[in-house]
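for the record, two folds in this file. i put them one after another cuz i was lazy. first one right below, seq on top, structure tokens after. the second one comes after a little note so u can tell where it starts
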Amino acid sequence: MTSPRIAPLPIDEWDDETRTALGGRYLNIFGTLAHHPKLLKRWLVFGNHVLAKSTLSGRDRELLILRTGWNARSVSEGGQHVVIGRAAGITDDEITRIADGPDAPGWSANEARLLRAADELHADQCVGDATFTGLAEHYDEQQLIDIVFTVGQYMLVSMALNSFGVERDDAATGVPFPTR
């Protein structure tokens, strides 16, 4: 896509409720979803849980999000989370390996299970028995729930970004994201 299908609204065109909910933060996805303020407000609550209040470590969460973005071929989402993933301790080599998936050399057994869970959720909408059993050896029930909801949230976001033609934000422009 060469241009947005739904152009983001500039902040000065947001309603008061949207401006208040976002507190002046601007990302292209927010500007795009500002066309639907009630949905945006409710989605922010869920999205903020997954991003900031999840029981997963930042590194585990970002591995799931990066693999989900790659599976969805969402360069916009991937670029944004390369920046966040680096801050969570994911190296550029690991970011490159995201494209190679759970069987690539270098992942710990647990990291490979996380990436496999993202793949299985993408392909089958269900974490397979072997993967779930392996994850349950390391994570408690809340964390297992957060794994599934993290992938689901970022698949939803990736679908929206891809479908609406949301462009990368300036902070993520030029950030490498695997495309192979």
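(here's the note) second protein begins now
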Amino acid sequence: MNTFLYTLGYTSLFSALIPMGMFLKKGGKGFIKMIFLLSFVSLLFDVVSRVMVYNGYRGLHLSNTYFIVLFFSVSYIFTQLLFNRKLIYTATALYAILFFFFILKFNHFNDFQSELRAIGSIVLLAYCALYYRQLLITLPAQNVSQYAPFWINTAVFIYFSFNLFLFIIANYVFKNFSNEIGMTVWGFHNINNIVKNILFAVGIYYAGKKQVGF
């Protein structure tokens, strides 16, 4: 079982190379370039984190920092997709304030930030829902299966919707159960991460084709 979980973990880590490779092949600009940068940062954080854990460091600073980077990067992507940018700017600013409040009053930054991850996930899922609605209004008669932003939005929606419950319970699991159980629970995140990166790659692929909005 441990061998499978370790293999799954490394597969998740290197799955970031899938959208990166697609970007290098197809190119892109705007939020497509941001996806490439986000994938690169994800790979970098994962590699550094594993090296530090291998050397005995068990802190969660890197993991928490990566989620903040992920939240703000995905929020930027939605400023390029959604018409209502003011809503995103406002939600992002409020989340930043909430983040500092939680760190100062409740959870140490070295702890797994379950509440902040759950709240951030809900905010990003709201963006996804708004974008699906926008697509229904702006492209009602077109085949969105070949429309790059549809796949990017779907990648974000699947990743955060399936991980929402995991983010909520993760801190409790990590503190109260064995490392084996913790790895098993986090294995679901790794599966979702692989799916997300594959869907990102599909979006980048279609972004390289001539279509509405590009």
